[in-house]
Protein: Metal-dependent hydrolase
Amino acid sequence: MNKEGHVLNGALLAVGLGVILTIDPTTGSLLSGGDGGASRDLATVAGDTAWMVAELSLPVVLGALFPDVDTAFGRHRKTLHNLPLLVVFVAFPYLFGNLQFVWIGVATHYVLDVLGSKRGIALFYPFSSKEYGFPTGVATSSQWANPVTIAVTGVELLALALVHYYAFALDTSLADAGNVFRTAMGV
Ligand SMILES: [Zn+2]
Structure:
């Protein structure tokens, strides 16, 4: 995708994820808290949601733009388009206490390039230069680029919502993952 597509994807994902993390429809009422169902009034819910969306927006959009820096150096769709780099972005906040949520933008950039654009990305670079794509992809210059971007974002949000509501809470699992990681690293 081009930069417009990645900004669109990052911005929509931040809004959707902010809503998913603050409003839990599985508790029976939209006004129930995620922490066991204490009722909240509409203004509180709207405020919490807006705050979460704002908190996610800038880091996610920045992360979504970052991988295409490799158009300027290195090898495009390889140097900054791989899972080893994503691991660095996921680990960074736990080690240094900043850059929270930027990895979400990097991850969604990869998803969009794999699912939404004709040319895939080298997920295992520098170990392998093979590029992985999906037949759903369109050319980045295609008139379908933005509709495909929106569709891919919708699929991402649906998957995230299903995981968050029915498998494990995305926000608490990150903290738990951090504790596990810290224990394993002895820091
Ligand atoms: Zn890219």
Notes: The chain has six helices and no strands.
